[in-house]
# Entry
Amino acid sequence: MNSKKISVVIPSYNSSATIERCLNSILNQTYENLEILVINDGSNDDSVEKIEKMQKQDNRIKLITIPNGGVSHARNVGIEESTGDYITFVDSDDYISEEMYEILMNIIFKYNVKIAHCSYRNVDSKGNIINAVGDKERVIPQNHDDALECLISGMYFCTAVWNKLYDKSLFTNVRFDKGIKFSEDLLLNFKLFNKVEKSVYTDKPLYNYVCVEGSATHSAEKIRPEKEAVYVFDRILKISKGGGCENMCEIIYANKVLGLYKAYLFENDKKYKEEMKSTLCTIKELKKNGLYNSRRDKATIFLYKYFPGLFVLLYKIYDKIRVKKLDPEQ
# Structure
């Protein structure tokens, strides 16, 4: 098993404060046959110097410098440059448990699958554990349809790529969509999971996800994430046609359209007037096609159309009292 090489792709942009911790957690893996591809995405801090210093101490680290093009472009470069049998991703401000890749490789060989993945912890910038997302150490084999439904619904596991180990062959003709900043992991994962008949998930938390205010994931920007979620689920819906999870994809796509209109209402900017009209037309069309049958959806659409100000007020009250999640997708 140890003869199989894992390529670990790390996009790095101005990561001076965290890159050493990240790399050390990978270098200290109990599974040693690793290729660590650090994609320097046009950094202008001293992170490159730190990476080069560590590179001299361990030749498994390979530094590739490219003009700044965003995390998806950097990951795509890593995929192209990788030479391993398996591929995985780590964000430069995160770090992993030392047995993560050994556990995932054991699962791959025991269950003869091409995708194995694990749970994670939310931690603060000092490394204090905020919570563990799944910590029962269950091992859950899933067939094609079950895995896709879990992926799009958020049940069991999150949509991120950093807690997953993939057979590199799955990336044939599959890359990250460079045109989007949000939900890009979900779209890529849907394409990859759609290629396999089975996969295995363990809810043993082996990845440490650092919650950083102001990051792309936790951005206060409202409209772009919602627009891109609609775009992603439109793509997913097309891919899922005729499949076992098509109906669920339709429902979630319809909910994402409602979410986009809500974002427009909160932004309350006249420049989005035409986009709001178009989105409302889409909502009406989806309603005609048999979606939005719940009382909640019907009430939401009614308020959108006739009392948008009241909806915004009611949602602000709800938002203050609801329990907010810490999942990376939010």
